[in-house]
Design a protein that fits this description.
2 copies of one chain form a homodimer.
Chain A lengths: L1 H6 L24 H13 L3 H12 L4 E2 H8 L3 H13 L3 E6 L2 E6 L1 H11 L7
The first copy, chain A, binds a DNA duplex (30 and 30 nucleotides) through helix 5.
Chain lengths: ~120, ~120
DNA sequence: CGTAAGCATCGACGTTCATCGATGCCACCA
DNA sequence: TGGTGGCATCGATGAACGTCGATGCTTACG
């Protein structure tokens, strides 16, 4: 059954970044792999703190370090690192180490891919 | 703290459909309420089965009943109802009762709102 | 070389979630 | 009116998640 196809799929943490999820939601005959990849993409944004992180990075012109993110979010530093990891694993964020500091920035290619998935091609109503 | 603002917010099941989440991810100063609403929208699509449901309804010209959805998904009927409820609560699906059968269809207004949230306005890179 | 600071990881805890079988409710039909 | 079938709900179970404090690692600075 299809449920077995899902179980055999790689849904664990820290695999390769979410790839192969470029088909829009109204693509004909969306495969099980595409469904898993697409769900992983949306799942990464299924937390309010992660939405705020993406928002903060989207409005920021330059990459932002964790030391600036943490006070803006009102959660502890380990939790911020946890969320950042989820977003990096999903391929939405890019991490850059500058000496002691870790800077994060949006992956605009991935964001465009997200918009492409969420946008229905045959939208008429 | 902001974490308290999240806790005081309505995140339970079966509230009013997800509203007030029209701001794109790169809107300046995204509020905590908007972050919660946006996350709820993405969270509804954070499951492979729900992605496939949306896909099936997107390619279908007419509303689809649960009896047709269940064999296509390969999961039991209670689980299908569970996922459909999540999507209806998120405001993405519309339920219509026709005698014994329950028909579901995409809410195209909500889908356009989703595309608007996922699309960055100042996309240049 | 020792100390401080930024960040990731670990272990733990409580909550949420996906899934199923069993059951209940309602519409339809003979 | 009794039976059948479609669908939602309930209760249980195992897995995943968000959060935190504690800890470890690496870099920078006296």
């Amino acid at each position: 059954m299809n449920v077995d196809a899902y179980d055999a799929m790689d849904t664990k943490a820290t695999p390769a970044p979410v790839m192969g999820c470029c088909a829009p939601l109204d693509a004909p005959q969306l495969s099980a792999e595409e469904a898993v990849a697409t769900a992983a993409l949306f799942k990464a944004l299924g937390d309010p703190h992660r939405v705020r992180i993406v928002n903060l990075l989207a409005v920021a012109a330059a990459p932002v370090c964790v030391c600036d993110l943490t006070p803006s979010l009102g959660i502890t530093q380990p939790t911020v690192s946890h969320h950042l990891r989820k977003l990096v694993d999903a391929g939405l964020l890019i991490r850059e180490q500058r000496g002691t500091w870790a800077y994060y920035a949006l992956d605009h290619v991935a964001m465009r891919r997200l918009a492409g998935v969420a946008t229905l091609t045959g939208d008429s109503s």
